[in-house]
Amino acid sequence: MQVFNVQGMTCAHCVRAVTSAIQSADPAAQVQVDLAKGEVNVQSQLGSEQVVGLIKEEGYTATVV
Q1: Torsion 52-1-9-15 (CA) sign
Q2: CB count, 10 Å around CB of 49?
Q3: What is the pTM of this model?
Q4: How far is 44 from 11, CA to CA, in rounded Å?
Q5: Under 8 Å between Cβ of 31 and 18
Q6: Which DSSP state fits 62?
Q7: Is residue 51 a contact partner of residue 2, using CB atoms and an 8 Å limit?
Q8: CA-to-CA distance for 14 and 45, rounded, in angstroms?
């Protein structure tokens, strides 16, 4: 399980955008978003750099926790 701190998520649309971006690259990925904490937990074959890149493509700032 990888944990990311994501800045800029404010609503359910943001959650869907981040989740969809990650699952588009790894359809088997399990993504859990805690909007209040600004955290995204990812269980995936993708590397952390890839996940950060996918989140950034959606317009959010992401760092590995």
Answers
A1: positive
A2: 9
A3: 0.94
A4: 23
A5: yes
A6: E
A7: yes
A8: 22
